[in-house]
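Changelog-adjacent note: as of this version, every example in the card shows the full chain rather than a window. The one below runs 107 residues end to end.
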Amino acid sequence: MLSMSVSDFMLTMGIALLVAGLVFLGIGCFVLVKKILGRELQTIADQTSKLAQKGLTEDVTGLVGNARSLIDSLNSLIKTQAGVGVMLLLLGILLLGGAYALVLQIR
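Full-length structure tokens:
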């Protein structure tokens, strides 16, 4: 049977929090970088604006309304993805801080 002292257990928990914090920090950075480098969303937004301009010149109001709702959906998608990335970064920083505080308690 494995017996651990209190300080060994706290060190193990600190290491686990450190690893989890680094993982969340890495995933958050990846999500934000992926958002910046995502060319698909930019292509869709460009095509939608061209579609809206064509709808205005040809006086097709339904087409313009649908294009506008598509642009609004793209904007909310981008905001949501950025929010997820920032939340993961903050969670990673909190876990790293918790690991540091836990390791400081070891005597």
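Structural remarks: Residues 6-104 form one domain.
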